[in-house]
Amino acid sequence: MHGIYRKTPSQDEQEASALKAIELRDLQSQFLHLHHNKIYTKEALETSAKLLEVNPEHYTGWNYRKLAVQHFLNHQSETEADSESIQSVLNEELKVVENALKKNFKSYGAWYHRKWVLSKGHSSTDNELRLLVKFQKLDSRNFNAWNYRRFITMLKKISDEEELQYTTDMIYDNFSNYSAWHNRSVLLSHLFEKRGERQSHKESVLEEEFEFVRNALFTDPDDQSGWFYHLWLLDQTVKLEPFLLSSWPPHGSSRSVDYLDGRNLFPSMHSLSKDRMFPLVLYFSEPVEGVNSSTVTIECEYYANEDVIWRPLSANKFGFSQVWFTYLNLPDEVHSLKDCHVKVFVAQFPDIVSSSGFSCSQTSHIVFSLCVPSHDREHAEGQTVPRFSWKDKEFYSHATQSHDASLLRSLHQLKIAEESKSKAASDWSMKIISNEIAHCRELLSSTNCKIGKLTLARLLMAQNKLISYGIPNDGIEVHYEEILGLYHDLMKLDPVHICCYEDESSLVLLKQVTSSMESILRYCYQYGDSTSPRMYPCLCLRLNGLSLSQIGSVERLLWIQMLDLSHNKIRSIEGLEALQLLSCLNLSNNKICSFTALEPLRSLKSLKVLNISYNEIGAHAVNTRRYLCSSPMTHTVENDWNFKEFTNSGVKLTNHWDVFFIFRDLNLIQLDIMGNAVVNDQLKSFLFKLMPSLKWLDGENRN
Amino acid sequence: MGELKTEKHVEYILSVEKRKDDFVSVVMEHLRLNGAYWGLTTLDILGKLEAVDQDEVVSWVMQCQHKSGGFGGNIGHDPHLLYTLSAIQVLALFDKIEVLDIEKVSNYIAGLQNEDGSFSGDMWGEVDTRFSYIAICSLALLHQLDKINVEKAVKYILSCQNLDGGFGCTPGAESHAGQIFCCVGALAITGSLHHVDEDLLGWWLCERQVKSGGLNGRPEKLPDVCYSWWVLSSLIMIDRVHWIDKEKLVKFILDCQKMVEFQIGQTMLLMSSTPTLELPVFHFLNIQD
């Protein structure tokens, strides 16, 4: 029991307490004796009733009473079933429960006993409802009572609509009733599911709910209950059909094949395998399932569609993922391809479904062409691999260089292909969001309410999302500065939750950065100048020093081959797994606390250069990403590890299973890990063993 | 700020262990096995586990076992999952799992799984996600997870996931920090955390931190030291613990301690729930890192 403040007892109080203790001890041992000897006489039952009145938490007492009832009922079936005496026995049980609840109305044992009795089917459910109303008037937050209410209403087959009215009454009684709001959301969800396709009905109900909760919010803006409910309503409002947001290669592009082994940037890499694999990536607006060779078809001279296997890149709810990919292999006989055309039809059948249950009813298609340079088969033997440097001086702002056409074209995919914008997008959602924004602003004009500000920021971002989906918005533009300003205010207003606001505003910042070609070009740099022999034919996106704590807007970054995220506050790199072309990644000077946090890198077959120096790996006793990592320890990954070759590597494998797990499938050429507490010579030599392709580790050459 | 009065906490726990006859001990006699787990774990964290007589404790724990394989809260009390977990945990603390008939205990636990994947607490059929966590945690400790249908167990837990991202004790029940800990814990052990919306739940959880720095169990309720455990552990498992202010929480916990230091010989507790002492110690040590 919580919140009980006990003062130092006086001498008298202590003596009385000692006496009580002796009495209770005797009662309890007496009871146990009766229980073990299965004695169910009237006196015995009275003893148990007395016990439960004094100590309703004595769970064996409740078990005993059930046994006694069973004993009685078995006895009854030998003679005629006397329903009156059964009823009186059960009523007695209900009385015992009531007495116990008077002592502690949160007693699990007492409430369950009542449920058990009612399940026998002989008792009055009307009485129960009356009792519940009484209890809920005394404490409207008692969740035992609410759970019991759910049980009774199911027994009585009371409709969801009626119960909805009950929550309405409770809320009018007291707006600060999170339990009532919660129940309301449960009931409405059921009702929405039942109505099924009638979107218009759902829309009118949601509008009413927004009005209803507005009363609560305006009456007491600092009470959380209404705001949480409002967040749920918002979530219901923006639920739309999923559609294809972006792809790699992008629609309308024409470029050289981007090989997964990274040979475009690192010619020495292709001697490692004969495969010439390249990725196709589909990025949806919501996590979806049902992406396979029936729902997504590829038309190309060299591929049989049926052989293509689509996989989710980061499966969440039961196999739903926003990103789906496949790897295609250039057939051996293809020597040089000029303009090999590929057409990908997405959502041929409406079997691609989001986790909210909406299906992708629109087919979109992507057309692109690939060419294979005729010299790609040549081995780049004997070429020394120069060390990649992240220093400022290596990077040139693209504007100062003459670019070739393909660079500019590669940035075109920032614009989402017109055809893939959802026509089913809802004007109604836009109307509601705009409305709520107006109301929120009104509220904030008279109170400086923390959750109100947060809600406004989230509403503005939701509006922004709808605008980016092409939903008409009467020319309303998104002002990122305003949203970022709101988060800035929140960090001052509510410093306790500063990191939560930092995380959310990182996503806003990234949306702003990627919102237009002009904006993103400001962060694009060329590695090496055109006269340098080390020039890499691609751009590096430099997002260092922006106080970013997480990664977002990945759908606009699928083209990235080089990414600098150093000097930020990043703890999680979730989202990076979609960047299938990523070859060079700088995560130095961030807040990465463990190797398990690097799990998304396992999906990046092109990754060659990785800098994770000056992070916090090994610096914390508790690994907060441990359970979010799909490791073999949590039965989610097959354990096909072959440790034999590593047993003499000088490292205790059980201590470094995470190093093995993350790095063994990566073919890094260069790795920087200094500045992490976990680093020592044993670990370094283990890494060299684990990755035969590794040439540079913390500046040291393998040889 | 103050510091954790380790010696006093150890003294207090050892005194509780000795005390059996005062009113509070008698009233909580039926859950002594739970109390043993919390107290012994605290001692272990403080490096003082050797202060108790291991053999005596183990022998007492085994006497709490019922012929069905399950454990009761004390000798002579009926078996229930709640105490079965505590028994296994205490034995694990002393590295004495081998005294158990693992097959027997596992079968008792596995036998309580229902058709829909949920778990009953005991033969009387009360269902609660707490019991799902207990079953999964117990069997994981015994390396016997394959005795249950893990997929169905996970499905049931997810059916208790609410629209605010949290979890309740049964489908439709309100989110509560204690239940959330149990559900998130069970999902973590079974590698199913990807079903959780970390941002949504993380926000609900971090909003439990009130102005005083303490944590409550659900919206618009008072803070209590025990929620430091339920909320904090949940946040750690979903990597959102940086969303609360650790310093303020530590200060709150240490303030709760102030009362205890003067009243060791008496039944003086600021909040009388059994996890009270375990948490400040555990979390103080982890937050400080």
TrEMBL record, chain A:
Its EC number is 2.5.1.60. Pfam families: LRR_4, PPTA. One of its GO terms (cellular component) is Rab-protein geranylgeranyltransferase complex. Gene3D superfamilies: Protein prenylyltransferase, Ribonuclease Inhibitor. It comes from the Eukaryota. Keywords: Leucine-rich repeat, Prenyltransferase, Repeat, Transferase. SUPFAM superfamilies: L domain-like, Protein prenylyltransferase. GO terms for molecular function: Rab geranylgeranyltransferase activity. GO terms for biological process: prenylation. InterPro entries: Leu-rich_rpt (IPR001611), Leu-rich_rpt_4 (IPR025875), LRR_dom_sf (IPR032675), Prenyl_trans_a (IPR002088). It catalyses: geranylgeranyl diphosphate + L-cysteinyl-[protein] = S-geranylgeranyl-L-cysteinyl-[protein] + diphosphate. Belongs to the protein prenyltransferase subunit alpha family. PANTHER family: GERANYLGERANYL TRANSFERASE TYPE-2 SUBUNIT ALPHA (PTHR11129:SF2), PROTEIN FARNESYLTRANSFERASE ALPHA SUBUNIT/RAB GERANYLGERANYL TRANSFERASE ALPHA SUBUNIT (PTHR11129). Catalyzes the transfer of a geranyl-geranyl moiety from geranyl-geranyl pyrophosphate to cysteines occuring in specific C-terminal amino acid sequences. This is Geranylgeranyl transferase type-2 subunit alpha. It comes from Olea europaea subsp. europaea. The lineage of its organism: Eukaryota, Viridiplantae, Streptophyta, Embryophyta, Tracheophyta.
UniProtKB/TrEMBL annotation, chain B:
One of its GO terms (cellular component) is Rab-protein geranylgeranyltransferase complex. Keywords: Metal-binding, Prenyltransferase, Repeat, Transferase, Zinc. Its cofactor is Zn(2+). GO terms for biological process: protein localization to membrane. Its EC number is 2.5.1.60. It catalyses: geranylgeranyl diphosphate + L-cysteinyl-[protein] = S-geranylgeranyl-L-cysteinyl-[protein] + diphosphate. InterPro entries: PGGT1B-like, Prenyltrans, Ptb1, Terpenoid_cyclase/PrenylTrfase. Binds 1 zinc ion per subunit. One of its GO terms (molecular function) is Rab geranylgeranyltransferase activity. SUPFAM superfamilies: Terpenoid cyclases/Protein prenyltransferases (SSF48239). Residues 4-259 form the Prenyltransferase alpha-alpha toroid domain. Heterodimer of an alpha and a beta subunit. Catalyzes the transfer of a geranylgeranyl moiety from geranylgeranyl diphosphate to both cysteines of proteins with the C-terminal sequence -XXCC, -XCXC and -CCXX. Belongs to the protein prenyltransferase subunit beta family. This is Geranylgeranyl transferase type-2 subunit beta.
